[in-house]
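Thread title: Can someone regenerate the structure for this chain?

I was given the following input by a collaborator and told the matching structure tokens would be attached. They weren't. Posting the sequence so someone can regenerate them.
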Amino acid sequence: MAVAHPVATIDHVTMLANLALAALMVSVHLGGLLCLLWMLRARVHRFRPHESRPAQIGVILFVVLGLDAAALRSAWI
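Best answer:
Regenerated them for you:
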């Protein structure tokens, strides 16, 4: 005869704590994306990324590394 295992239960406090942590992580990512957009808009007049391939690659690399940095920052919180 098999023994019935109780269903894992999570209390309301744990659920609210998880929700708060998720909201904090989303806010950190949003803040990082907004900073990246601000930096890109502030510096786009210095070079014309649509005119040269190396500039396009540089912008893509900058955005990808910035997103990685935002993800790492939220992982350390």
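The chain has a mean pLDDT of 76.
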